[in-house]
Amino acid sequence: MATNNKLKKVKAGRDHIADNFYNALSLSDMAQHAHISPYHFLRVFKDTYGETPNEFLIRLRVAHAKKLLITENHSVSEVCEHVGYSSLGSFSSLFLKQTGMAPTLYRRKLWALSAEPFCFPAQAIPACYARHFLGK
């Protein structure tokens, strides 16, 4: 169990990840904002949040990519760059692993459900999920 001081430090590192997920972040960068060593940060982060800092970073990036794929007319390559990946292959592979479908298929399926372009299909998505997903 992490002490209160360690929790504050790990939260600072987590906040740094959340605020800068679209940039290239290394474990050292994340740990530096927590003011603890990288491997200690990794251990305490996993104990505290149940996922590694990298898993958290991937989850944030994929969630933001989902939003961009639905609400914007950017290409998948542009979405890839917007969420912090330099490799389209890595992005597509992580997106597929997280969502169960490729980014293009994800976009195509949700756009097919919507009556208006670049809008979430409100009738197909529960309001609580849409609120969480859109941040509204």
Question: H/E series, N to C?
Answer: HHHHHHHH
- Helical stretch tally: 8
Largest sheet: none
Report the helical percentage.
55-70%
Backbone shape: elongated
Q: What share of residues are in beta strands?
A: under 5%
Low-confidence stretches: none
Rg from Cα: 17 Å
Total strands: the figure is: 0
Quaternary: single chain
Structural class: mainly alpha
Average of per-residue pLDDT values: 86
**In whole angstroms, how far apart are the ends?**
34 Å
Describe what you observe in this structure.
The model has no long low-confidence stretch (mean pLDDT 86). The chain starts with a helix and ends with a helix. The protein has 136 residues and is mainly alpha-helical. Helix 1 (4-19) packs across helix 2 (27-34). 68% of the residues lie in helices and 0% in strands. The protein has eight helices and no strands. The protein is elongated, with a radius of gyration of 17 Å.
